Amino acid sequence: MDEFKCDQCKYATVYKRNLRSHILTHKKPNEAGWFYCYQCQYSTVRKDHLKNHLLTHRKPENVQKYKCNQCEFVTTRIGYFTQHLIIRHTSPDKVRQFKCDKCEFVTTRIGYLTKHLKRHKNPEEVWRYKCDQCEFQTVYKYHLTTHLKRHVNPKEVRKLFKCDHCEFAVTRKEYLKKHLIKH
Question: What is the rounded average pLDDT for all residues in the chain?
Fold first, then answer.
């Protein structure tokens, strides 16, 4: 399996999407992208959170659902559905598993094992990332980067296009044009 490596540190992963998320950890909070809903004022630093939020604007009957035919599990995310099938309904001898050598922890994802292994380290051995604006601290640089965005006003990060008829404001002109049709 191919490995994707960060060109700014020693981080490596087998998942390209994880590398993309990791690269954000090397950026300042105001450089990392905010994701904005074009239908309301919602904004987030995580694309997957925006995807989930966008589902709230749809009629329930228009949301794609993935239903397991072996149990009651239902989700709107194909990735969660696939993971469910692997974990719950595939025999363990057919699934590649990663096991912790210090306890009983087992997972199908190497990244989860890597995170888990930090729990066995002495806190002084684990690098702690601390927020300089509050008491927040974490062992993950990505979590600090995400946290720091809470101290930044998203409206200061990007130019907003504002509706002249109401309080609606977005970061992309085409979203404002769609909105203006409603007036």
Answer: 79
